[in-house]
Write a structure and sequence with these properties.
The chain has helices spanning about 1-5, 40, 175-190, and strands at about 10-15, 20-30, 35, 50, 55, 60-65, 70-75, 95-100, 105-120, 130-135, 150, 155-165, 170-175. By secondary structure, the chain is mainly beta. The chain has a 7-stranded antiparallel sheet with strand order 5-4-1-2-3-7-6. A 6-stranded antiparallel barrel has the order 8-9-10-13-12-11. A hairpin with a 2-residue loop joins strand 2 (about 20-30) and strand 3. The mean pLDDT is about 95.
Length: about 200
């Protein structure tokens, strides 16, 4: 897991439309590309990532409020990407990794409760979408959003995006299969895209 740690980054920014500072987590998945949640950068014009004590400016090149995914282009980010893992099965061990509550890096044990096609709203509560997700037994806190769900070897099972409102021991992550289309698009994208409004 320590191998993956330096490639899991804090993502920060200010959303001018709601005068709010946001922060979350992200991870390097391709050269100079960081994946995070769309809600982490919603309304943010100039996000940055923290790497090795440095703050690097980033550009949002994929913004998908339906899947709740974003890809950041980070010039000068010289970190090897994390690999995506195969599908996790019910009962598999995993790790929720990131920067909860704007604090230091944490890696918390998790267990996969199941894989499901879940119906729910997009980040703006405007459309109903269906996404493939993992239900997890783990503590997911604000700031974990956008961080990876890792397998025991440090490969990426998926992207953490939410905690259950009624159970502090249940969290959710998008599966690697669900994030694959945006991951592919983000590898080659270079043009800045709109992050719309705050969620």
């Amino acid at each position: 897991m320590l191998v993956a740690r330096d490639r899991i980054l804090k993502v920060t920014g200010v959303a001018p439309s709601c005068a709010r500072r946001i922060e979350g987590s992200g991870f390097v998945y391709a050269p100079q590309r960081v994946m995070t949640n769309a809600h982490v950068v919603a309304g943010v014009s100039r996000p940055s990532v923290q790497s090795g004590g440095r703050s690097l400016p980033a550009t949002v090149v994929v913004y998908d409020p339906e899947r709740d995914l974003a890809v950041l282009d980070v010039p000068g980010l010289a970190l090897a990407p994390l690999a995506f893992a195969g599908q996790a099965a019910t009962g598999d061990s995993a790790v929720v990794a990131g920067y909860p509550q704007d604090g230091p890096f944490r890696a918390d044990a998790a267990r996969v409760r199941g894989v499901q096609r879940a119906k729910g709203p997009d980040i703006y509560q405007q459309r109903t979408v269906v996404r493939e997700i993992y239900a997890l037994r783990s503590r997911v806190r604000p700031g974990n959003s956008g961080g990876p769900l890792l397998d025991p070897r440090g490969a990426v099972y998926g992207v953490v995006f939410a905690a259950a409102a009624d159970d502090p021991q249940t969290g959710y992550a998008l599966t690697a299969r669900e994030v694959a289309p945006d991951a592919r698009a983000g590898r080659a994208a270079t043009a800045k895209v709109s992050t719309q409004a705050c969620d």
